[in-house]
Give the backbone structure.
Amino acid sequence: MPRDEAWTIRQKMTGVLLRQARHDAGKTLKECGQVLGLSSGAVSAIEHGRRSVSLPELEMLAYYLRVPLERLLDGGAELAPTVVEVLPSVEVLALRHRIIGALLRQACLDRDLSPTDFAKQAGVSARQLSQYEMGQKPIPLVELESLAEVLELPLSHFLEEGLGPIGEQQRRDRESQHFVALPPEVRDFVVQPANLPYLRLAMSLGTVPAVHLRNIAASLLEITL
């Protein structure tokens, strides 16, 4: 499938997921536009796949609509909504663009890949790549995914998990997803307050080198035999 066609399909899929999440949250195009500093028409264009959306913009919308970012990226599993206490300012978007650009540049340096070669492999101009790396121009999500593929990195490498209110929400959402994925009997054990000492013991043992654990196990066998 030609790249442009694949990008168009990807943008439309993201738009459909965004529109559904917005409807579920009871938010208008105008309200979402105000969050991003865009017009309602621009948000509508994103939802219909006619306008690209960047990862920071999608992060901001996920935070505002109280849904996990994964739901807007790939329709991931739904979680209980997180209460949004203070919505980050639009300036956060500009900062995120710069951070992603810096991560992009660092990944390129780590692989001893020159900007010229990277731009050629990614199918973008050297000037456009420079604008992306300097945070001067938002990177469309579909293009960031292609850049990450060239660098052999997952898209998650560019997430702000744990940084700021949006990143903190992403971290909590991811932890919740991991917890839900545990076997039912394990979840039942974890949520019992009486089992907290055993969990702490398991955490402590998790930091002990394997050779020490084997020595402890051998000593216990000697005692019981």
